[in-house]
Each structure stands twice: as structure tokens, then as C-alpha cells.
Here is the input.
Amino acid sequence: MGLSLTGCERGKETDALFTTYQQRLAAALDATPPTPGTPNNIPAFPDADDRLFEIPDIREGMLDIYALRECRIGVLVANRNNQLGKVAAPSQRWLYELKLWRRLEACAHSDVAQQLDDEDRQRLERLTRTKAERMPMASWNALFSSEEWVGSFSRASGPLPPDSLTIPTEALAALRYLRTMTTRQLDTDWQPDSTILEQHLKTLREAPLTAQVLRSLQLASLRLEEANRLYATAEATTSCPLVDVGRLDTVKDYVENELSPYLEGLNRLAGTWLGAVEALLNAQQVAREAITEYRHRWLSLNNPTAPWQRYLNARDTHRQHWLRLLRLCSNEKTT
Here is the structure.
């Protein structure tokens, strides 16, 4: 039987890539390699009570629902209230709410509504309006109570290894479909598809990609910042900080063949994925404070202290140090 590496063990491959670079750089600078720090883990995702909306039930009498029987909502309501309906997955509850509102909306604009007495017609209009007003909260709850979405932020994850930086096209398609469902849920010209939705959620369930991206950015930022301090100390003492300029080729080969490809791959993947997550969250018409705070601290593309901007700053600073080292020491090497 073959053995497979766990996420944590695969993450060690990435850490080794950075620490090997630090060691080679330190040897070239005749300096002591930095003691690797431990990247901070991402925080726990907000609890359900803090991330979900409380949506009170709409209670109507059996006779009142019977009066609206021509709207064809009786079976829907019964299915929602039975044992299976009460334990349905968040995605299925969302689809139920969509189907119920669409039937109410269609009924309210049909000849059926004109045949109702005033009280029943007003009830139909009130139910239709109330359901429409609550749909943004219903879709929010469907997303933020789903195990697929919450699992994407799992703390039990590790940084992405060098061979796992391909753009996740299927997972991105899942986020796009969820965004479309959110933005067009009250558009009766667009129809949600339960099979497509469940397939997309299954794709998201395969890996905690958001957490893996954040952990990767945390690790890369920390290791680059450690290397940057090594550069800064060396640059303060001499024009070309290399004691043996011949060692420059060893570091250069490692940067070009190992470090730079990883950073470029992480840059593409993290920027693409976090951009798609932000687009999905921007599509929401409502929000809970706990999620807004989590989003600003960990998912923001603009917050200078969030993982993405911290990584870009560490990467750009590292590039400046590296180019300066090449300029100074390459010139000295060829004189």
C-alpha cells in the first residue's frame, strides 16, 4: 500500500523551500541563518450565532394556506415542515425559499390573484413581499451555514506545496455559480439548478482552499521578511555584502529555479482565489459584523495588514534587495 502525505507534511515541503533559501543566502553573506519563526495560524471562523441571521418563521393557518391552493405552494410548505425538510442541507433550504418565492410571485401576477377575496389577496401580496425582502438573508444563511463554505476556512490545513499552485478552475466555477445564484435569485428569467449547485458544493468540499491560501501567504510573508532582515543587515556593512562573490551563482540558481517559480505561482493562485471570494462576498446584500471583521482582517485585498498585502509588501521588498545584490555583486564579479 502506498503512503500519502498529509496537508501538514506537504506544507513542510514549502517551508523547506524557504529555509533552504535562507541558509544558502546566509552562507553567501557569511552570516548566521535566521531562526525560523512560526507563522500565525488563521483564526477560527466565527460561530454560527455570530455569522448567521435569525429569520423568524412566517406562520399561517391551514385554512389560509388552503385558500392559496391555486398558487401551488401547499406541497412545498408541507415538505419544508416535515422531518426531512427540517434537516435539509443549507443549499436545499435555499432552493426551497427560492421556489416558494417564485411561485408566490408568479401567483400574485396571475389571474389566480384576481379571483381571491380581498383578505386572501392581501395575504398573498404580503407573503410575496416578505419572502422577497428576506431572500438576501436566506441566501446569506445558506452560504455561511453550509459545511462546504465553512470548511474552506478550516484551521486544520497547511500551506500549499510547490506542486499544488495551479489555478483551481472547478472551484472558481463553483464560486461564480454561487455568486450568480445570489445576484439573480430574484430574477425570474434565471433558473437555479439543484444538480449543478450540489456538484459545485462537492467541488468546494474537496479542499479547504481559502485556509490553504491564507496559510501559504502567512508562511511566505514571514520567511521573506526574515530573509529581508538578513539582506538589510548585510547591506549596511559593505558595498557588495558577499564575502565570496562566486557563491552568488549558487543563490541565483536557487532563486531562479525554486523560489521565484513558487512565488509567481502563489501570486497567481492567491490573487485569483481571494479575488473570487471577494466577488462572492460583494454580491451579498446583507452582512454580519463578525464576518465583516474577519473579511477585513484576513480576506481583504486592500488592508495593508491582511495576508495578501503583507505578502505583496514582503515579496516586493525582497525583490528590491535581490536586484540590488545582483547589481552590486555581479559588477564586482566581472571586474
Notes: The two ends are 58 Å apart (CA to CA). The longest helix spans residues 248-282. Confidence is low (pLDDT under 50) at residues 1-7.
